[in-house]
Fold this sequence. Notes:
Blueprint: H1 2-35, E1 42-45, H2 50-63, E2 72-75, H3 78-86, E3 90-91, E4 100-105, E5 109-110, E6 116-117, H4 124-132, E7 134-142, E8 158-162, H5 167-178, E9 181-184, E10 201-206, H6 215-223, E11 228-231, E12 233-234, E13 240-244, E14 250-253
Parallel strand pairs: 1-2, 1-4, 2-3, 4-7, 7-13
Antiparallel strand pairs: 5-6, 6-12, 8-10, 8-11, 9-10, 13-14
Helix pairs in contact: 1-2
Amino acid sequence: AQASTLFRRNYCKMDDxxxxxxxxxxxxxAAVDQWVTEDTKVVGVGSGSTIVFAVERLAExxxxxxxxxDMICVPSSYQARKLILDHNLTLGDLDRNPKIDVYIDxxxxxxxxxxxxxxxGGCLMQEKIVASCAKTVIIIADYTKKxxxxxxxxxxxxxxxxxxxxxxxxxxxxxxxxGGEASLRIALKKAGPIVTDNGNFLLDWKFLAKREYNWxxxxxxxxxxxxxxxxxxxxxxxxxxxxxxADGSVKTQN
Length: 254
Ligand code: 5RP
């Protein structure tokens, strides 16, 4: 009986993953096909599991369809850089390509005003830097990321990148200013704090889901705390979001 329960549990999880992957792939394909054209010279590449489908689609366009010959891809993380190289796409950087035509990335949660929580994978700082250099920021996500209010979906909180020496004072200041609880992100098996691509630590701030926050103000106030390097709150950055739905369709939000 125990074996069959385990089998059923794993089978369901596998089913969920297949459905979510199909939704991510549909969103990624729709966004790439709409936003990356022969006129697109520089594409910013986000991080996470959804962006993998976007890079696969870009590679298909280049290598199977013979399109996008001049496209340069600027990565937002070590993972994105590796994805670009693994797919034999042209790797750029902000020194040579500081003006990006379109930045495509996933998100952990998107509210009805297009405020995003990002940084579930810990890449928020480089993601925000690359996104800030783009004319257009396009978000791709599966249907579980769509919310009316932040906090509906994402129970792990808002990621905040901090200087390692400041993690205790920053935590205390955020909690005093806005309530909730900010915890240092710890590696699996308690192997110590997670270290970002930039050599920093992360706090995950579980805000008070029932409180009304002005996210622009919260973002500015947290960014001003000494030791805070970047927040995972992306306010007024995204132009359009593509959500892959459970039925295979893609819904957009502006
Ligand atoms: C990484 C990110 C990701 O874009 C975000 O976590 C979404 O990831 P996924 O596509 O795996 O759901 O911000 O720092």
